[in-house]
Amino acid sequence: MLTTEQVIAKGRLHDRVFFLVGLTLTIICLGTLAVLLYNLLAAGLPRLNLDFLTSFPSRRAAKAGILSAWVGSVLVMLVTAATAIPLGVAAGVYLEEYARKNWFTSLIEVNIANLAGVPSIIYGLMALGLLVYQFRFGQSILTGGVTLAFLILPIVIVATREAIRAIPQHMREAAYALGATRWQVVKDHLLPYSSGGISTGVIIALSRAIGETAPLVTIGALTYIAFLPPAPFSTVEGRVVGPTEWLMSPFTVLPIQMFNWVSRPGDDFAANAAAAGIVLMAATLSMNLVAIVIRARVRRRVKW
Asked: Looking at 36-50, 57-71, 181-195, 233-247, which range is the least confident one?
């Protein structure tokens, strides 16, 4: 039979052991990340310059650039955001505030949670059959953007629901007591108060989408492209380009361009891939920084 002092001493020993194990694992993970980051910067920074950002890919490593890749990434992410954000936020609001709590909505919630963990290549196969062959969108920016929107839609829905669920119930009751309708409560109270959490979830979802390769390879994104989509209202071959014609243009993105360079022999193309990785990492970190800034500003402005 252990005494009280022995029980306390045993608990403190377990705390110290857990602290040391956790600290060791944290140091190992951060050290590994630091080594990988150092290798990436050492290989890619010498190659990173303005010509690299404004040149098209080339068979010669010294002249190759990522212009078509980063423009394609921006356009695909634009389509992804325009598709996933309104649908995801609307679905999250409906499931949390409007839908009846029964077996059907419970089934929907379970399926949404499961879809968030489905491998990304499954979305690529679905988009290949549905968007490319059935709807005949082809291997276009529209197909790539909608495919990635399918991928991150469950994440946006879950983030929206969690952000709305975190708002105290008395905020809703006070608004209803003053005669507000359900839509007025959502529009004037729930969405403004939850905008910080929703924005964070959206940016995290977009950060995942910008680095995806498997679904875009599945739908046939090009590994080499030396032209840009036509600009809206520009003149090409004597005709004026429509405002949405760029949506049907072929494309490539930064992860696919990196994959193409890594698969080639020689250190020169590996340096190009490292430089493109730095650009992709900077874009991802910038998106996360935007989420942090938005969340901080919303927390300062909104007071419960």
From this structure: 233-247
Distance CA 120, CA 117 (A): 9
Predicted confidence (pLDDT) per residue in 187-229, tens digit: 888 888 888 888 888 888 998 898 888 898 888 777 778 888 8
Instruction: Give dist(CA 36, CA 40) in Å, integer.
Output: 6
Question: β-pairing, 239-240 with 235-236?
Answer: antiparallel
For residues 213 and 123, the answer to whether their CB atoms sit within 8 Å is no
Please state the separation of Cα 128 from the chain's center in Å.
21
CA distance 142 to 131: 9
Q: Distance between alpha carbon 69 and the CA centroid of its chain, in Å?
A: 17
Q: What's the CA gap between 235 and 44, in Å, rounded?
A: 37
Q: How far apart are the first and last CA of the chain?
A: 51
0.85 exceeded by pTM: yes
Contact between 79 and 140 under an 8 Å Cβ cutoff? The reply is no
